[in-house]
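Lab notebook, bench 4. The sequencing result for the construct came back, and we need a structural model before the next group meeting so we can plan mutations. Quick request posted to the team channel:

Model the 3D structure of this chain.
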Amino acid sequence: MVDAVPFILAFAGLALVVPGWLGRAGRLPRNHFAGVRTPSTMRSDAAFRLANKVAGLPTLAAGVVALAGAVTAWFVPTQEGALAVVLVATAGMLALVVGGAVMGVRAVSRAAAGQEAEPPTR
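Done. Here's the predicted structure in token form:
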């Protein structure tokens, strides 16, 4: 069972990299499966696009953290060490995803209130 955990983490990483990349590029269409999906972000295509553009970079980073954790876990010689790596990578991945979602929802709220809501440029 423990041997499968890095594969699950790698799959989660890939599942985050794609919507993170598309969201950052402004190309993630409004859907019910991927992206920041709250009542405020699902109200319009523009709100969904803005939220996911803001959340795109943290989501992409979360996917990279998950993939790096999975690869690292495969090279750790003990199962306990591999499990520790997976737990740390999972915590980092979740923190980045939740943080990105909060940032996206706040951007939509600011845009609805008429404030500047554009994400910072590179």
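The chain has a mean pLDDT of 92.
Will bring this to the meeting.
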